[in-house]
From TrEMBL:
One of its GO terms (cellular component) is cytoplasm. Belongs to the PITHD1 family. This is PITH domain-containing protein. Residues 9-221 form the PITH domain. InterPro entries: Galactose-bd-like_sf, PITH1-like, PITH_dom, PITH_dom_sf. It comes from the Eukaryota.
Length: 241
């Protein structure tokens, strides 16, 4: 189900609820294909830092692969009402063209799934698929060089899918640079990595604790290591969360 609605997140608390950052089990968050270790964790920032461009999450430049798969468990079951995903720009082109990045174009959202790899996330129907608006959509652009455009909240519907969530998995399979190149018939253009600066959720806790289990994860999961459908997502050994 595609999601295109959104709201501007002017307040820390609004009709969509409070930030769920306090409920995220940071030690168990991981992202496959991230450009550096724990880059995925680094973009789960406090709400007041949502406009900061550093630290960020990027897909690696050395393998021309723009996909990212991120798993976020919670310390207790939560109700998620909205998600915010923020990139620097549709296509960010600094003076050094080799450092260009692009904001993600779509986000597939899966609730309470611990069995996803890249192949299954690419093919499986998600609980919701969000078409992310370009960062330039917000008219109020910050003038401070350390800040980018504002952020947008995308409500998650149907709401019943996101009640009693113990984890959420996000798949970013494309970005604006790829979509624009395909639209112009320039599929052979150089691949521009995906960049994400902030991921946030709003909703509420339930006080239902998630059962703790012990897992051992790779320090940096690569796509070539996660091609078998049904394999544990990001785990070397031990049960899934």
């Amino acid at each position: 189900m595609a999601c295109t609605g959104h709201s501007h997140d002017h307040d820390h608390e609004d009709q969509l609820g409070l930030s769920l950052l306090q409920y995220i089990d940071q030690s168990q968050v991981f992202c496959l294909n991230e450009h550096r270790e724990n880059a995925g964790r680094s973009v789960l920032k406090p709400y007041e830092d949502r406009l900061s461009l550093e630290p960020n999450l990027q897909s690696p430049r050395d393998d021309d692969d723009i996909e990212l798969l991120m798993h976020i468990p919670f310390t207790e079951a939560v109700t998620i009402r909205s998600i915010c995903v923020s990139g620097r720009a549709s296509i960010f082109k600094p003076d050094d063209e080799d450092e260009s990045t692009s904001a993600p174009f779509t986000c597939k959202v899966f609730a309470n799934r611990t069995d996803l790899d890249f192949d299954t996330a690419r093919e499986l129907e998600p609980d919701v698929k969000i078409e992310l608006l370009p960062p330039e959509h917000l008219a109020e652009v910050q003038t401070d060089d350390s800040k980018g455009p504002g952020t947008l909240d995308f409500p998650l519907r149907p709401a019943s899918k996101f009640k009693m969530c113990t984890s959420i998995t996000l798949f970013f399979g494309d970005n604006y640079a790829k979509i624009m190149a395909e639209a112009e018939g320039n599929d052979d253009e150089d691949v521009i990595p995906t960049e994400i600066n902030y991921i946030g959720f709003k909703g509420s806790g339930t006080s239902v604790k998630r059962q703790a289990v012990e897992c051992v994860y790779e320090t940096r999961g690569m796509k070539k290591d996660h091609k078998q459908p049904g394999a544990e997502f990001g785990a070397k050994e031990g049960p899934s969360i």
